C-alpha cells in the first residue's frame, strides 16, 4: 500500500489507531501522571504578575553606542535605592531591540521614578529616560487574571459541552472534553517540568488551546458521524472500524491544519525569542506551540478512541459488532471493504438494501442471494 | 446527476464580497476622521497604562453607581494631565487608564485616593463674588507675556519688588491683613495667566495649552512670594474650571476656591518645602504635615450636642500625633481640608486635639456630612482602588513590539503560503488570495471598531490574529480535503465541488462555532490583555466565515468550470484523480466479482 506518505494522502483507513487504543491510553496516562506529579511537587515558575513586583527595561545600548553592562545597571540600582536589591538583571533580545531587564520587588511610584532618573543618568541609554519602560504589578493581579481564567474555563466547558451534546451527542461531548483536559494538563505540565515562566499571556494561550483542540476534534467527529450513519443496520464494519476510517480520512487534514496553525506560531516564537527576548509574543507562542502539538495528537489518539469505548458500552453497538464478527467468520466473499468508501446517500441506501437481503437470505440462501444480486446491479451503475 | 444543493452562481457571491469591502472602506475613509489607522494599544505606541481594581473593605461588590462615579472623577484627573488621547475605561471592578505618549507617567498617581491634604488657612477667606476684571482676547497669544499685561484694577505702583530673601514657602502670618494692591514683579508676570479658561475636558490637541495653563496657574497661585499670592487671590475666578485641580504641589502655598465656589482661600503648604531649611521638622506652626494617607477613618454621625450632623475623623497613630501638635499650635486658626486643590471644609480649631480623633462640626446635612466623610476617607473617589498593574512603555519599545508583531505575522503568513503552494498548488493560490482578502477586511473592521467602540489593538491582539491565520486556513483545508475525497471517489473536479462544499460547509460551521464560543467566553469573562486577544480571535473567526462563503468557495467553483484551471496537475488534485480512476476500475471489477459469486 505504498509508503507512509501515500497512505496518509489517500486516507483509506490504513492506520489502525482505534484498535490499538489501549496503547495510547497507557502512553498518555503515563505522561499525564508525570505532568500532574510535576505540577504538584515542582509547581510553576510564576512571573511577577503573580508574585507582585516591578519590572524595568531599558535599551542595552548607551547614547555613545556602547553596550551597557548588567553590572552597571545593578550598581545604579544599588545607588538609587539603597537597601533594596533587584531579583534579577539580565540582557535579552538582539539587535536594535536588545534590552536590559530588571526584576525587582515591588517599588512604589516614587521609587520607580527615582530609579529611572538614576538609570538615565548613570547608564545614559539610547533615547534617554523616556526610553526606559517600567511595569509594576500587584501580587493580586495575576491571581485575579487566573481566577477569571478559571471561570472562563468553567463556562467554556459548559458552553461547549452543551453545543457538542446538541450538535453531535453526549458521548462525543465527553470524548472531546477528555481530550481537552488531557491537552491542558499536559501543556501546564510541560510548563511546570521545564520551568518556563508563567505570565498572564501564558494563561491566555492556554485558554485558546482549548478552542483549537476542540476545533480539531470537531472536524474528526463530524466525519465519524457521517461514516456511522445507519451503521446499526449494516454488518460491514463495527463502530470502532468506522471511527478508525473517519480518523484516517481526516488524518491528512488534521496534520495539515496543525502544521498550518503551527507555522504562524513558529513565526511568533522566532520573533518573540529572537528579537524581543521577552514578553507577550514569546509567552503566547510558547504555550500555543506546546498546546497545539498536544491538541493535534489528542484529537487523533484520545478523543476518538474514548468515543468508541463509550459507544461500545451501548448494547446495540455490541450486538452489531457481534453480527459483524459472525458475518466475517462465515463469509467467503469480500470482507471489510477495501480502499475508499463512498458514504453518500445512494451508496448507503444500496448497502442497507443489500444487508436486508442478506439477513433474509439466512433461511433460503441461494435464491435470495440471487435476488440481492439482481437488485444490486442498477445501484452499482448509479454509483459510478 | 449533480445534486441540486451546492450549485451556486459564483459571480453573485464575489460581487457581494466586493460590495462589503467597498462599503467598509467607504466607512473608513469617508466617515469619522477618515484616517485609516487602527487604534493602537499602549504597548504598541508607548505610554502609560494603569489598571486600578476597586477594593471594598468588607469584600462586597462595589455598586455600579460608585464605580461609574469613580470612573468619571478619574477621567477628570486624567484630562487634567493635559495629554491628548488619554482615556479611562471601566471593565467590571477595574478601571483602566491609558495615557499615550512618552510624558505620561503622571497617570500612575491618578488612582490614588490620597489627593487630600490639610492646609492651614492664612488670613480670612475672601468672598468669591469680588469682581475681577475679565481678561479679554489674550487667549490667542497666552505666551507673549510682556505684550499684554493684565488690566488689573490697580495700576503699576511698581516699587515693592518681591522680597526674594523671605523664607520661601512660608507666608507672612498677617498676610491677609495687608491691602491687596501690589502688582507682581514683572519677572513673574502673571499676564499670561489670564484666568484658567479652557476646560480640560477636551483633551484632543490642547495638551500643550493645558500644560501651559497648569504651569502658569502654579507660577501665580502657588508662588512662594506672598505678594504674588495676594494678587492671585484677587485675580482668581471661582466660576471657571481650575487647571490646578489635582495638580497642586503640596509643598507650596495655594490660592484656591472652596467646593461651592463661594470663598477664596489662601493656604499654607501642607508639607515643609525642601527650600525651607529654617523650620524645624517638629514645628507645626505653619505646616500640618498631614495628607489623606494619615487618615484612618471618617464617618458621618448625628451631632451629639445639637441638631444636624458632624463628621468624626480618626487618624492613624502617626497622623494623630501630627494632628495633636498642629492643633495645639494653631488654636482658633482655621485649617482647610483640601481635596484636589479645592477646599472642602475649613473648620476652625477650637482646642488642641490630642486623642487622634476629631469631630468636625458645622451645619451639615446628612448628605453633606456623608460626602465629607467619604472625601476624607477615600479622597474624591467613592471607592478605594489598588493599583493592580502600572506600566510605562517607552515609545521605542512600543514601536519595536509593533514591528516584531508585524514581522511575526509576516513570517507566519509566508510559511503558510509556501506550504499551501507546495501542497495544494492552484488551490494553494486560492488560499493565499482568501487569506489576503481576509486581512483586507480585518484591517477595515479594526479601524472602524477603533473608531466606534474604542477598540484598541494591542500586542496580545496581534497575537490573536496570527493564531487565527491557522483557523482561517483550516476552513480552506477542510474544504479542499473534502474535494480530494470526492475526486478520489471518481468524480471530476467540476462535479466534486458542489458535493464537497455541502459537506465541508457543515464541518466548517461547527468548527468555527466552537472556536467562536471559546473566544466569546474568554471575552466576556476575562480581563485586560486577555480581552483583546479573545476579541481579535472571535472577530477573525466570523470574518473567516465571510471569506470562505463569499470568496473561497465561489472561486473554487469558478476554477472547476474552467478547462485550463481544472487540469489535475495544476490543481494539486492529480494524485487524488489517479486514485479516483483506480477506484472506478476497482468498483467495476468488484461488481463483476460479486456477479460471479
Entry summary:
The complex is a heterodimer of chains A (384) and B (597). With 384 residues, chain A is an alpha+beta fold. In chain A, 68% of the residues lie in helices and 7% in strands.
Per DSSP, the total helix count of chain A is 13
Bulk shape of chain B:
elongated
Strand order of the largest sheet of chain A: 3-4-2-5
- Major interchain interface with per-chain residue totals: A-B, 95 and 92 residues
The count of β-strands of chain B is 12
Run of helices and strands of chain A: HHEHEHEEHEHHEHHHHHH
Mean pLDDT of chain A: 76
What does this structure look like?
The complex is a heterodimer of chains A (384) and B (597). Chain A has 13 helices and six strands. Chain A has helices at 4-10, 21-41, 48-51, 70-80, 109-123, 139-167, 170-194, 200-227, 239-276, 280-311, 315-330, 345-361, 365-383, and strands at residues 45-46, 53-59, 88-92, 99-104, 133-137, 197-198. In chain A, helix 2 (21-41) packs across helix 7, helix 7 packs antiparallel against helix 8 (200-227) and helix 9 (239-276) runs antiparallel to helix 10 (280-311). The model of chain A is unreliable at 333-342 and 364-384 (pLDDT under 50). Helices cover 46% and strands 14% of the residues of chain B. Chain B has helices at residues 10-30, 42-45, 64-80, 207-221, 226-235, 317-329, 366-378, 395-424, 426-452, 459-488, 493-525, 529-561, 568-571, 574-596; strands at residues 47-55, 87-91, 94-100, 116-127, 254-257, 263-267, 295-302, 309-315, 335-339, 342-345, 357-364, 384-393. In chain B, the strands form three sheets. A five-stranded antiparallel sheet of chain B has the order 5-6-4-9-10, with helices on one face. Chain B has a four-stranded antiparallel sheet with strand order 2-3-1-12. In chain B, a hairpin with a 6-residue loop joins strand 7 and strand 8 (309-315). Residues 131-207 and 591-597 of chain B have low confidence and may be disordered. Chains A and B meet through helix 5, strand 5, helix 6, helix 8 and helix 9 of A and strand 12, helix 8, helix 10, helix 11 and helix 12 of B.
Amino acid at each position: 500500500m505504498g509508503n507512509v506518505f501515500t497512505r496518509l494522502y489517500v486516507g483509506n483507513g490504513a492506520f489502525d489507531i482505534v484498535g490499538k487504543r489501549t496503547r495510547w491510553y497507557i502512553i498518555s496516562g503515563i505522561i499525564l501522571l508525570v505532568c500532574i506529579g510535576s505540577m504538584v511537587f515542582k509547581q510553576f515558575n510564576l512571573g511577577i504578575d503573580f508574585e507582585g513586583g516591578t519590572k524595568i527595561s531599558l535599551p542595552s545600548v548607551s547614547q555613545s553606542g556602547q553596550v551597557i553592562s548588567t553590572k552597571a545597571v545593578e550598581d545604579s540600582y544599588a545607588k538609587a535605592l539603597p537597601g533594596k536589591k533587584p531579583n534579577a538583571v539580565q540582557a535579552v533580545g538582539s539587535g536594535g531591540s536588545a534590552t536590559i531587564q530588571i526584576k525587582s520587588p515591588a517599588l512604589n511610584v516614587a521609587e520607580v521614578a527615582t530609579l529611572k532618573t538614576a538609570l538615565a543618568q548613570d547608564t545614559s541609554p539610547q533615547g534617554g529616560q523616556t526610553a526606559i519602560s517600567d511595569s509594576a504589578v500587584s501580587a493580586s493581579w495575576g491571581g485575579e487574571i487566573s481566577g477569571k481564567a478559571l471561570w472562563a474555563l468553567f463556562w467554556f466547558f459548559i458552553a461547549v459541552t452543551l453545543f457538542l451534546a446538541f450538535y453531535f451527542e453526549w458521548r462525543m461531548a465527553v470524548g472531546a472534553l477528555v481530550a481537552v483536559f488531557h491537552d491542558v494538563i499536559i501543556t501546564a505540565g510541560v510548563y511546570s517540568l521545564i520551568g518556563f515562566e508563567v505570565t498572564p499571556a501564558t494563561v491566555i494561550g492556554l485558554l485558546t488551546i482549548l478552542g483549537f483542540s476542540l476545533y480539531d476534534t470537531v472536524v474528526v467527529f463530524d466525519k465519524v458521524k457521517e461514516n456511522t450513519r445507519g451503521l446499526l443496520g449494516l454488518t460491514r464494519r463495527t463502530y470502532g472500524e468506522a471511527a478508525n476510517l473517519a480518523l484516517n480520512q481526516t488524518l491528512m487534514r488534521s496534520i495539515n491544519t496543525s502544521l498550518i496553525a503551527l507555522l504562524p506560531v513558529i513565526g511568533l516564537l522566532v520573533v518573540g525569542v529572537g528579537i524581543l527576548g521577552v514578553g507577550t509574543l514569546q509567552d503566547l507562542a510558547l504555550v500555543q506551540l506546546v498546546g497545539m502539538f498536544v491538541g493535534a495528537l489528542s484529537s487523533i489518539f484520545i478523543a476518538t478512541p474514548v468515543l468508541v469505548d463509550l459507544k461500545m458500552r451501548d448494547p446495540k453497538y455490541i450486538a452489531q459488532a457481534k453480527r459483524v464478527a459472525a458475518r466475517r467468520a462465515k463469509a467467503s466473499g469480500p470482507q471489510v471493504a477495501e480502499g475508499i468508501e463512498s458514504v453518500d446517500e445512494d451508496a448507503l441506501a444500496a448497502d442497507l438494501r443489500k444487508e436486508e437481503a442478506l439477513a433474509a437470505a439466512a433461511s433460503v440462501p441461494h435464491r435470495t442471494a440471487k435476488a440481492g444480486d439482481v437488485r444490486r446491479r442498477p445501484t452499482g451503475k448509479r454509483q459510478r | 446527476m449533480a445534486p441540486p444543493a451546492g450549485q451556486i452562481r459564483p459571480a453573485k457571491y464575489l460581487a457581494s464580497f466586493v460590495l462589503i469591502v467597498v462599503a467598509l472602506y467607504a466607512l473608513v475613509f469617508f466617515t469619522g476622521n477618515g484616517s485609516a489607522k487602527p487604534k493602537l494599544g499602549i504597548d504598541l505606541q508607548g505610554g502609560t497604562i494603569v489598571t486600578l481594581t476597586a477594593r471594598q473593605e468588607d469584600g462586597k461588590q462595589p455598586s455600579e453607581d460608585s464605580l461609574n462615579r469613580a470612573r468619571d472623577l478619574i477621567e477628570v484627573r486624567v484630562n487634567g494631565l493635559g495629554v491628548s488621547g488619554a482615556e479611562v475605561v471601566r471593565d467590571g471592578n477595574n478601571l483602566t487608564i491609558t495615557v499615550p505618549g512618552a510624558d505620561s507617567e503622571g497617570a500612575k498617581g491618578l488612582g490614588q485616593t490620597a489627593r487630600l491634604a490639610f492646609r492651614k488657612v492664612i488670613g480670612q477667606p475672601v468672598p468669591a463674588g469680588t469682581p475681577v476684571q475679565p481678561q479679554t482676547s489674550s487667549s490667542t497669544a497666552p505666551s507673549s507675556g510682556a505684550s499684554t499685561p493684565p488690566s488689573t484694577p490697580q495700576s503699576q505702583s511698581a516699587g515693592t519688588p518681591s522680597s526674594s530673601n523671605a523664607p520661601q514657602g512660608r507666608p507672612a502670618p498677617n498676610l491677609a491683613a495687608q491691602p491687596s494692591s501690589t502688582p507682581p514683579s514683572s519677572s513673574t508676570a502673571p499676564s499670561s495667566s489670564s484666568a484658567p479658561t479652557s476646560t480640560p475636558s477636551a483633551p484632543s490637541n490642547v495638551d500643550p495649552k493645558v500644560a501651559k495653563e497648569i504651569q502658569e496657574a502654579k507660577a501665580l497661585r502657588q508662588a512662594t512670594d506672598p505678594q504674588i499670592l495676594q494678587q492671585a487671590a484677587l485675580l482668581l475666578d471661582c466660576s471657571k474650571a481650575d487647571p490646578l485641580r489635582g495638580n497642586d504641589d503640596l509643598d507650596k502655598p495655594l490660592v484656591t476656591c472652596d467646593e461651592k465656589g463661594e470663598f477664596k482661600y489662601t493656604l499654607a503648604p501642607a508639607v515643609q518645602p525642601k527650600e525651607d531649611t529654617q523650620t524645624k521638622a517638629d514645628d507645626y506652626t505653619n505646616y500640618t504635615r498631614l495628607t489623606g494617607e494619615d487618615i484612618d477613618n471618617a464617618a458621618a454621625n448625628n451631632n451629639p450636642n445639637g441638631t444636624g450632623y458632624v463628621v468624626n475623623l480618626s487618624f492613624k497613630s502617626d497622623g494623630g500625633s501630627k494632628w495633636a501638635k498642629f492643633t495645639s499650635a494653631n488654636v482658633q486658626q482655621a485649617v482647610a481640608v483640601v481635596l484636589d486643590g479645592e477646599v472642602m471644609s475649613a473648620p476652625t480649631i477650637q482646642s488642641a486635639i490630642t486623642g487622634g480623633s476629631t469631630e468636625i462640626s458645622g451645619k451639615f446635612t446628612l448628605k453633606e456630612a456623608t460626602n465629607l466623610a467619604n472625601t476624607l476617607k477615600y479622597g474624591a473617589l467613592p471607592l478605594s482602588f489598588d493599583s493592580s498593574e502600572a506600566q510605562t512603555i517607552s515609545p521605542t519599545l512600543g514601536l519595536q513590539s509593533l514591528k516584531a508583531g508585524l514581522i511575526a505575522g509576516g513570517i507566519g503568513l509566508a510559511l503558510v503560503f509556501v506550504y499551501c503552494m507546495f501542497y495544494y498548488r492552484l488551490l494553494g493560490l486560492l488560499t493565499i488570495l482568501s487569506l489576503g482578502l481576509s486581512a483586507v477586511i480585518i484591517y477595515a473592521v479594526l479601524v472602524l471598531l477603533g473608531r466606534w467602540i474604542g477598540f484598541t489593538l494591542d500586542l496580545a491582539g496581534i497575537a490573536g490574529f496570527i493564531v487565527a491565520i491557522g483557523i482561517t486556513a483550516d476552513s480552506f483545508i477542510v474544504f479542499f480535503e473534502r474535494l480530494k475525497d470526492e475526486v478520489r471517489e471518481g468524480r471530476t473536479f467540476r462535479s466534486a465541488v458542489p458535493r464537497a462544499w455541502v459537506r465541508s460547509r457543515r464541518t466548517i460551521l461547527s468548527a468555527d462555532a466552537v472556536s467562536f464560543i471559546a473566544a466569546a467566553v474568554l471575552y466576556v469573562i476575562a480581563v485586560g490583555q486577555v480581552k483583546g486577544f479573545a476579541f481579535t480571535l472571535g472577530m477573525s473567526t466570523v470574518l473567516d466565515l465571510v471569506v470562505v462563503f463569499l470568496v473561497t468557495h465561489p472561486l473554487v467553483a469558478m476554477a472547476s468550470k474552467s478547462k485550463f484551471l481544472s487540469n489535475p496537475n495544476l490543481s494539486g488534485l492529480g494524485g487524488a484523480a489517479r486514485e479516483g480512476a483506480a477506484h472506478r476500475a476497482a468498483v467495476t471489477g468488484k461488481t463483476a466479482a460479486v456477479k460471479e459469486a
